[in-house]
């Protein structure tokens, strides 16, 4: 495998030595651009007490291109679809090479704290969120207990 | 403030998509009508969308012109602090014996030329503050314009 | 070149398939939109012109295992077809007699596989093989 850019090495080291509270990111041994990620659901959100598994990959063009991130744990959220794909501006058009793995994962955590049903990826979830928010939040909580509970 | 797209009158990506859709539907119609000798049409339907796709991809690369990047002001080594690092490669400038650091207009954010040149070849925004680096045109000296406008006072 | 992990590779293929960016002579998509592992896929191949397959649409099922794309997907014809590389009782495409599966490369995609099967149908030796009635299934 081609040598790893210095930036990726530095980011990885810092993720271990100075981890972000509520977030872990560990590279796979056989592919140091591929990270196994966990994100804790933010307090006072329907995802509270949940731990969500994600995967993150740094493409060849990183940091000129955004990391690829996906949820592996099922989650009921208007901006995350059934395959775990995330609709988040910094992962698409609003990417900047000054952003890092940690800032991206913080944005993902922030998305859990403030779902945006007006820019949906999962249309059925967004509709529920707009029409009956209490129901939607209850369902998100239920899914968190069902699929993302700490073991 | 106008965008790069407006200024350069380029909405080519959209136009290309429309053209491609039209072509596809035309080919589709011909294909439906003409069941007997459709080899050529089948070939066309394979070849044309892909070549248009390539054009589309090229159109999306909307960055700064090369001469803009080349003309970015260099930051003298003596003005770099020991702790300063490039936020794109995360390396300390002074790790390099001869750092080539540039400053963006207006926001004055600094980067390694090598790093920011790659980014600006496909974007027009500052990596740190998203300021549109192309939007700062040399300004007309407002004070003289105002004086000339004031001719009525004396009239 | 770094190695893109299985899931992100499959998401790329899915997006290409969903947006119809690929050639029109084949199509592919997830068999189950809820399948977070993205294992089971459906595909179609439009029969090549000037052959006994002309104007036919063949349905196939693909299984992308844990080792995809290091290992090829399993691919099986659902529509009946008479081709040397297709098992005539199960519809399975046999790796031993289909070069794209036999000499699989990581850079190959499901699209590569479908287009190469289409080429296989158009080979001089295969294009006039008698074919089962249209619409029959394995």
From TrEMBL, chain A:
Domain of life of the native organism: Eukaryota
Family matches, as Pfam families: UQ_con
Cellular compartments per GO CC: fungal-type vacuole membrane; nucleus; ubiquitin conjugating enzyme complex
Alphabetical UniProt keywords: ATP-binding, Nucleotide-binding, Transferase, Ubl conjugation pathway
Every UBC core domain range: 3-149
Endpoints of the signal sequence: none
Gene3D superfamilies reported for this sequence: Ubiquitin Conjugating Enzyme
An example molecular function term from Gene Ontology annotations: ATP binding
PROSITE patterns per the UniProt record, alphabetical: UBC_1, UBC_2
Enzyme nomenclature, EC number: 2.3.2.23
GO biological process, one term: free ubiquitin chain polymerization
CDD domains documented for this protein: UBCc_UBE2N
InterPro entries: UBC, UBQ-conjugating_AS, UBQ-conjugating_enzyme/RWD
Active site: 87
Enzyme class: transferase
Entry's family note: Belongs to the ubiquitin-conjugating enzyme family.
PANTHER family, per database record: UBIQUITIN-CONJUGATING ENZYME E2
Name listed for the protein in its UniProt record: E2 ubiquitin-conjugating enzyme
Species for this entry: Lachancea dasiensis
Taxonomy of the source species: Eukaryota, Fungi, Dikarya, Ascomycota, Saccharomycotina
UniProtKB/TrEMBL annotation, chain B:
Pathway(s) per entry: Protein modification; protein ubiquitination
Membrane topology, as annotated: Single-pass membrane protein
GO MF term list: transferase activity; zinc ion binding
CC terms in the record's Gene Ontology section: membrane
Broad class of the protein's primary localization: membrane
Keywords: Membrane, Metal-binding, Transferase, Transmembrane, Transmembrane helix, Ubl conjugation pathway, Zinc, Zinc-finger
Pfam families, sorted: zf-RING_2
Compartments, record wording: Membrane
InterPro entries according to UniProt: Znf_RING, Znf_RING/FYVE/PHD
Translocase in keyword set: no
Transmembrane segments: none
RING-type domain span: 86-130
Protein name (Swiss-Prot/TrEMBL): LADA_0H06590g1_1
Automatic annotation (TrEMBL), chain C:
CDD domains the record matches: UEV_UBE2V
Single GO biological process annotation from the record: protein polyubiquitination
Signal peptide: none
Pfam families per the UniProt record, alphabetical: UQ_con
GO MF annotation terms: ubiquitin conjugating enzyme activity
Record GO cellular component, one term: nucleus
Domain of life per record: Eukaryota
Domain UBC core: 5-138
Keywords: Ubl conjugation pathway
Coiled coil: none
Keyword tRNA processing belongs to the record: no
Name of this chain's protein: LADA_0D00716g1_1
Organism: Lachancea dasiensis
């Amino acid at each position: 495998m081609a040598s790893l850019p210095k930036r990726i090495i530095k980011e990885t080291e810092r993720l271990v030595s100075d981890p972000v509270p509520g977030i872990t990111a560990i590279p796979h041994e056989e592919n140091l651009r591929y990270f196994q990620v966990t994100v804790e659901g933010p307090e006072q959100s329907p995802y509270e007490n949940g731990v969500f598994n994600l995967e993150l990959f740094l493409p060849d063009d990183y940091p000129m291109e955004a990391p690829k991130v996906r949820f592996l744990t099922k989650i009921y959220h208007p901006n995350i679809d059934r395959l775990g794909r995330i609709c988040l501006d910094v992962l698409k058009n609003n990417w900047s090479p000054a952003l890092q793995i940690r800032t991206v994962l913080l944005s993902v955590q922030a998305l859990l704290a403030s779902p945006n049903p007006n820019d949906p990826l999962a249309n059925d979830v967004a509709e529920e969120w707009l029409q009956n928010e209490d129901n939607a939040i209850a369902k998100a909580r239920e899914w968190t207990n069902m699929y993302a509970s700490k073991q | 403030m106008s965008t790069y797209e407006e200024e350069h009158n380029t909405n080519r990506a959209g136009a290309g998509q429309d053209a491609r859709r039209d072509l596809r539907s035309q080919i589709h119609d011909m294909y439906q009508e003409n069941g007997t000798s459709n080899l050529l049409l089948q070939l066309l339907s394979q070849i044309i969308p892909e070549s248009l796709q390539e054009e589309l991809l090229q159109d999306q690369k909307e960055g700064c012109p090369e001469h803009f990047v080349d003309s970015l002001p260099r930051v003298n080594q003596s003005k770099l602090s020991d702790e300063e690092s490039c936020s794109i490669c995360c390396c300390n400038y002074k790790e390099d014996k001869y750092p080539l650091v540039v400053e963006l207009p207006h926001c004055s954010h600094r980067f390694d030329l090598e790093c920011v040149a790659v980014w600006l070849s496909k974007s027009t925004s500052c990596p740190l503050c998203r300021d549109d680096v192309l939007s700062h045109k040399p300004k007309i000296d407002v004070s003289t314009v105002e004086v000339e406008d004031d001719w009525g006072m004396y009239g | 070149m770094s190695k893109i992990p299985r899931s992100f590779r499959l998401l790329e293929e899915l997006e290409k398939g969903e947006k119809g960016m690929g050639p029109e002579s084949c199509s592919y998509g997830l068999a189950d939109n809820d399948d977070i592992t993205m294992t089971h896929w459906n595909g179609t191949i439009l029969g090549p012109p000037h052959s006994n397959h002309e104007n036919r649409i063949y349905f196939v099922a693909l299984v992308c295992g844990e080792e995809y794309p290091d290992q090829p997907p399993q691919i099986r014809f659902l529509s009946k077809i008479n081709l040397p590389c297709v098992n005539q009782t199960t519809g399975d495409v046999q790796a031993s007699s289909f070069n794209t599966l036999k000499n699989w490369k990581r850079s190959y995609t499901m699209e590569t596989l479908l287009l190469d099967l289409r080429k296989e149908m158009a080979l001089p030796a295969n294009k006039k093989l008698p074919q089962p009635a249209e619409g029959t299934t394995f």
